[in-house]
User: What shape does this take?
Amino acid sequence: MPSRSILMKRVEDHFISKGYRVAEKSSADGFIKFRRHGEETVVRIIDELASRDEMLSTIIQSALDSGGGKIAYVSIPMSLVSRLGDYAFRVNKIGVLVYDERDLVEIVEGGVQTPASEEKHESEAAEKFLQEKIEALENLYTELTNKIATIEARINQLEKQSSVPKQETSASQPVETIQRTSGRKTKKPETLPSFIEDNPWVELLSNKR
Amino acid sequence: MFDEEYRRRYVFGCDYGTSDFKYGPITQGDKPLVTANRGYFPEKSIVSQVLGVEKEVVVGKDVTLFLGAGSELSTRLVYPMRSGTIAKDDERAWHVVEELTRYALSEFKPGGFGFKGFYVVAALSATAPRYMYEKMLNIYDKLASEGLIHSSTIIPQPLAVAIAHKQTSCVVVESGHGNTQVAPISRTPIREAIIALNRGGSSANAITAEILKDAGYGDLVKEEALVRKVKENIGLLPLNLDKAIGYARNNPEEVRAVYQPPGTRIKIDLGRDSWTRFLIGEYVFNPDHEIFQSYYKRGMPRPSDTKVGDVFFYGTLSIADTIIQSVEKCPTEIQPLLYSYIILSGGNFSWQAPPKLRNIAVDSETKLMHELREKGVENPNVKLSSEPQYAVWRGCIVFGYAVPSSYAWSWEKMEGWYVHRR
Assistant: This one.
């Protein structure tokens, strides 16, 4: 994975090519602020080795940036986006930049949360907006937490399976082991064609070694 | 783990049929996209004018832009899989396969980040010689270098049909335009028991053309598409040919066939010769019946025994005898299982059974079960594939979805994932 300085350079190049200029940046905190025609864009970077708390903190900061009338982006490693998906970011208009060793690509365009940028709103409307924003953040937080919990559970399960001695699996509980293994292998994506469902070949072919 | 998820997301099926090329990724749903399995080699100047690009071969929808070129059409329009196999040195046919595959994959290639190529599962005839596998994988190598393919594999079409029908023990009879394959399957194709016939839909067209000539419509037989339509509309499959002919002679009006191709003034009336309708269906199942000898003597080519690569193709062996010979090459223990599920796949088995000709003209399932019982097979069960045109593609998708990415290609087993260099 690229170092943070290289990554920040790539982010800078990406936005400069779109006509932005760097207004402020901090390598230690992992953010860069850009300006273009009076609009402000803040990009926050999540490292591949970031802890769960660090990741959530960065995403929430970006959500607050977005709620504060700025265009917010998070830059995340490919391995993370493939697990989390981009839906939650899209609905919250938080831009997403995905990176790997060589490339950096914008997969979700950041947007301005219009209500926050309009200070003409009356106080009731502003309060309502903030409540909705907090609710959206809470939902985002819950969604992320659930996804992380699922990933952790799956990792634990895999670790358990790989640490079980072969003798035990083959001798004492053969039936249970087969069921567990097959359940994992035949797990289907959400939009699975009907001809795959309940097809005995899936189980049969999954055992090809 | 990530590789497995990626593979499942980007499985792509390619069914190189004799007439149509069916393709699409797993996200396509229950039905693939279909385009004619053909390519047009235009004059360079025409291509540059119409498409604005120099292209040696045109495939897909754009081919229609060039149809109507008259006498040149037969030399410029290439159907690579017309006979089920492609000759090793038929460069134009291989070129069409490459361009069609590129066309299909490009249509679905996602934009943006993270895409490393499709996991392509292709289906070829069970009788395809090894060099066809080698040629296909070479083509896929080229497409992998363009970022379209990550890994690929090739499976026999009958296996794909069995997979699509969710049957792990069965016999698949797949009949295409030029040939027919009978393949017993017991969790894997039993390759040594596969039998191929050197006839298919084109043979039924040939007997239809002879019947039209005898009935005074010789001027129409030059148009293959029209002959095929006549076959589909007036052809009947008799339960027992001799009884059916006897019935037709006693009840000429009951079996009289009149066909008018839609939108034309042509009217084909077989009149007194309407009994010959039964010959069309019978010819598919049993071209060695003595009644066909007179046609052979008058010049109709008899389906000949032949050899392509390492595979022997029988000419006139009946479908029932072919199935029996094939099953009897398998272990005795599994033979009852194989007879208990015989799948007929391909348009060559679609025959109408008019209610007024009940027990005289029948569908393929009834005919084959009758013949197998007559030959001593107990409790045969024959099923006609409900959507034969999609079955092979569906089988490809299931195969790609299920087989682990770590299962590497083996030339010995002729299966597994072939990982391409990029």
Summary: Residues 237 and 281 of chain B are 4 Å apart (CA to CA). Residues 91-108 of chain B form the longest helix (18 residues). The longest strand of chain B covers residues 149-156. The interface with chain A takes residues 1-2, 5, 8-9, 26-30, 112-114, 162-164, 166, 168, 187, 394, 397-399, 401-404, 406-407, 415-416 of chain B (CB under 8 Å).
